[in-house]
Design goal:
Blueprint lengths: L2 E5 L3 H11 L4 E5 L2 H10 L4 E4 L8 H10 L8 E5 L4 H10 L3 E4 L4 H21 L4 H17 L2 H13 L4 H15 L3 H15 L8
Parallel strand pairs: 1-2, 1-3, 3-4, 4-5
């Protein structure tokens, strides 16, 4: 499971982010940049979500600091902030941020942005799977089964998919889908299946 570090000086903002992400990712929380740096020293983090306006070191200073550290220079960081002016957004882009989400946080926007940002880093790993075409086809079959409530076919197919030696990030997504299937939450399972298909499908295009 991938690990997300959320940094915000407002506790309710942190708990909101955690409530949205915790089913899909391990979520670490920090109320200060100092606290975030402590987490980074002790935990393998895959992506950072960071507020901009915080007491002490702000989000821009934090971004600059980790970009200068070779251990974290490639780590994706997304700003989550109430600042909406075009100049402020452009400043964030120029600073090297990987994304920008406006508060109040929309759950679907946050999930999609985190998922897409993590996927960008892992595209070459997913390309190495020789079973990609077959996986996408079977995921589409799983979607059809979930939409029609065919329990026996759903359970048999997800069991089979979980046995296959797919890359870790694919298996992690399949485990999340299996969890929703086990809870008979087929609409949420379908949402996650379609998200995984969206990630995998562009990779089937022939190389230029």
């Amino acid at each position: 499971m991938k690990t997300i570090l959320a940094v915000d000086d407002v506790v309710t903002n942190l708990t909101t982010i955690r409530s949205i992400l915790h089913e899909y990712y391990e979520v670490c929380l920090a109320r200060t940049v100092e606290g975030a740096l402590m987490v980074l020293e002790r935990t393998k983090v895959d992506l950072i979500l960071c507020d901009i306006s915080m007491p002490g070191m702000d989000g821009f200073q934090f971004l600059n600091q980790i970009r200068l550290d070779p251990r974290y220079s490639e780590m994706p960081l997304i700003f989550i902030t109430g600042h909406t002016s075009p100049d402020f957004v452009q400043k964030a882009i120029n600073a090297g941020v990987n994304g920008y989400i406006i508060k109040p946080v929309n759950a679907e926007v946050l999930l999609n942005k985190v998922h897409d940002t993590l996927y960008e880093k892992q595209e070459t790993i997913i390309k190495e799977s020789p079973e990609l075409d077959n996986l996408v086809r079977r995921l589409k079959d799983l979607t059809d089964f979930c939409e029609t409530g065919k329990t026996t076919q759903i359970e048999a197919l997800i069991r089979d998919l979980l046995k296959a030696p797919y890359p870790q990030q694919v298996t992690s997504n399949l485990n999340t889908i299996a969890k929703h299937i086990g809870e008979i939450d087929y609409p949420q399972a379908i949402t996650n299946i379609k998200r995984l298909i969206k990630v995998l499908s562009p990779l089937k295009q022939p190389a230029k």
